[in-house]
From TrEMBL:
<dbReference type="InterPro" id="IPR050151">
    <property type="entry name" value="Class-I_Pyr_Nuc-Dis_Oxidored"/>
</dbReference>
<dbReference type="InterPro" id="IPR023753">
    <property type="entry name" value="FAD/NAD-binding_dom"/>
</dbReference>
<dbReference type="InterPro" id="IPR036188">
    <property type="entry name" value="FAD/NAD-bd_sf"/>
</dbReference>
<feature type="domain" description="Pyridine nucleotide-disulphide oxidoreductase dimerisation">
    <location>
        <begin position="361"/>
        <end position="467"/>
    </location>
</feature>
<keyword id="KW-0560">Oxidoreductase</keyword>
<dbReference type="GO" id="GO:0016491">
    <property type="term" value="F:oxidoreductase activity"/>
</dbReference>
<dbReference type="Pfam" id="PF02852">
    <property type="entry name" value="Pyr_redox_dim"/>
</dbReference>
<dbReference type="InterPro" id="IPR001100">
    <property type="entry name" value="Pyr_nuc-diS_OxRdtase"/>
</dbReference>
<protein>
    <submittedName>
        <fullName>Dihydrolipoyl dehydrogenase family protein</fullName>
        <ecNumber>1.-.-.-</ecNumber>
    </submittedName>
</protein>
<keyword id="KW-0285">Flavoprotein</keyword>
<dbReference type="Pfam" id="PF07992">
    <property type="entry name" value="Pyr_redox_2"/>
</dbReference>
<keyword id="KW-0274">FAD</keyword>
<comment type="similarity">
    <text>Belongs to the class-I pyridine nucleotide-disulfide oxidoreductase family.</text>
</comment>
<dbReference type="InterPro" id="IPR016156">
    <property type="entry name" value="FAD/NAD-linked_Rdtase_dimer_sf"/>
</dbReference>
<feature type="domain" description="FAD/NAD(P)-binding">
    <location>
        <begin position="9"/>
        <end position="322"/>
    </location>
</feature>
<keyword id="KW-0520">NAD</keyword>
<dbReference type="InterPro" id="IPR004099">
    <property type="entry name" value="Pyr_nucl-diS_OxRdtase_dimer"/>
</dbReference>
Length: 477
């Protein structure tokens, strides 16, 4: 094979994160020849700079917090975390930022892997510039799937370039605990990293432009997380914007819109994401470089018969599990179209219908307490025009919660559609509630009637008994 010859495949996948890997897995399972192109590490953001390292950092934090709430155990876990051991545990889960194992997995499914920067070069055509200067030209008989994910956005502020701020990548891969850290942003990345680094020994200040933390969830979620962060020693300031940042020796100096001056060793900007589509050749097929891709429910780009945008690039839900879900949908759709098989309608529940992207997107925020939600919040449901009622329960009233932890603090809400008697959304906040979320996801995605939920009996005494309390509160209101 020469360095410049054109190689034909059924499918070419740009990006080898979890989304690209799953597209390749599904198309290979359908018997389609598939090439995967990646310029960084196979496994993508999730494996090396997001889901896996962040949760490896947070797990010891949450386990210690839970242990401190258990009589007979709390006195044994009063000391500080072993930061060296926690960081080593994180490094293990990132495979020390090596992707040999994931490359071996691609090989095991029969996908061809190309290391290098892939760009569209017109319809169904991809060029790959390898790290050693080698060039490849790949063509796709049936589909090119853009699965290049998203990147952190750093705001344009005076002094921002010179200070070399942290983004989510630096926050999850840092090799030492900073003495002090300013976190700008109150979304998932901001609150999770504030939780982790505060517990590991940093003095954390959180600056949030809006009214509270976790603005996409029910208001009580952000309130409970802010309360816990403050109790842990973090300084949480809402309604505060950053005006400028500079370096004073090794320290970062932050000036806020309120005239406050804050010094810290590091500053993390957790202020949003942008699609990694600025240099993938979108202009060669009539699309705007750097844009989010508009897609249908099979993740095929609007107006195209062969181009797919899967995962973060389509902006439907910037979550690994949703991206993998979309990848299964897209892979099945590509295979069906290649075989000439009609796809199901978008409101169906077969392999080709991405219905859950619209009605049942679950997310867990791994703070202390955890926050977990699926579907619509009360405000979102009302804005969408649904006639709904929110039902709230103090999780401390559930017997299983009291056994789980002394002084358990948490809250649960279900949003009931009064016309269909099904759930539009569910939110839990409290220790360990992430493990409750899949039951809520099934209820929302499956459109299970409230009358039917009465017969899904929760085991006693578990925290899951909150479902019975929610249903009783709805019935008795």
């Amino acid at each position: 094979m020469t360095e410049t010859e054109t190689i034909a495949y059924d499918v070419v996948v740009l990006g080898a994160g979890p989304v690209g890997e799953n597209v390749a897995d599904r198309t290979r399972a359908a018997g389609l020849s598939t090439a995967v192109v990646e310029s960084e590490l196979v496994g993508g953001e999730c494996s090396y700079w997001a889901c896996m390292p962040s949760k490896a950092l947070l797990r010891p934090v949450i386990a210690r917090a839970d242990a401190r709430r258990v009589p007979g155990l709390r006195q044994s876990v009063q000391g500080p975390l072993d930061a060296t051991a926690v960081l080593a545990h994180r490094d293990y889960y990132t495979s020390n930022w090596k992707d040999d194992g994931q490359i071996a997995w691609l090989d095991s499914i029969g996908a061809d892997f190309y290391r290098g920067h892939g760009r569209l070069a017109g319809p169904r055509r991809v060029t790959v510039a390898g790290p050693g200067g080698e060039q490849h030209v790949l063509t796709a008989r049936h589909a090119v799937a853009v699965c290049t994910g998203s990147r952190a956005v750093v705001p344009e502020l005076p002094g921002i370039t010179e200070i070399k701020p942290w983004t989510s990548r630096e926050a999850t891969s840092a090799q030492a605990v900073p003495g002090s850290l300013v976190v700008v942003g109150g979304g998932v990345v901001g609150v999770e990293m504030a939780t982790a680094w505060q517990a590991l020994g940093a003095r954390v200040t959180v600056l949030v432009r809006g009214k509270g933390l976790l603005p996409r969830m029910e208001p009580f979620a952000g309130e409970l997380v802010a309360e816990a962060l403050t109790e842990a020693g973090a300084d949480v300031r809402t309604g505060t914007s950053v005006e400028s940042v500079t370096r004073n020796g090794s320290a970062v100096v932050v000036m806020t819109d309120k005239g406050d001056r804050i010094e810290a060793d590091e500053i993390l900007f957790a202020t949003g994401r942008a699609p990694r589509t600025d240099d993938v050749g979108l202009d060669t097929v009539g699309l705007e470089p750097g844009s989010w891709l508009t897609v249908d429910d099979s993740c095929r780009v609007t107006g195209s018969k062969w181009l797919y945008g899967v995962g973060d690039v389509n902006r439907r839900a910037l979550l690994t599990h949703q991206g993998k879900y979309q990848a299964r949908i897209a892979g099945a759709a590509i295979a069906a179209r290649a075989a000439g098989v009609p796809l199901l309608e978008s409101n169906s529940w077969g392999a080709h219908a991405a219905t859950a992207d619209h009605v049942a997107v679950p997310q867990v925020v791994f703070t202390d307490p955890e926050a977990a939600a699926v579907g619509l919040s009360l405000a979102e449901a009302e804005q969408a025009g649904h006639r709904v009622r929110a039902v709230d329960i103090d999780l401390a009233s559930v017997a299983g919660a009291g056994l789980y932890a002394d002084g358990y603090r948490g809250r649960a809400r279900m949003v009931v559609d009064l016309d269909t008697e099904t759930l539009r959304g569910v939110t839990f906040v409290g220790p360990g509630v992430g493990e409750l979320l899949h039951s809520a996801t099934i209820a929302v995605a499956g459109e299970v009637p409230v009358d039917r939920l009465w017969h899904a009996v929760p085991a006693y005494p578990t925290v899951s008994e909150v479902w019975l309390r929610l249903l009783e509160a709805y019935r008795d209101a």
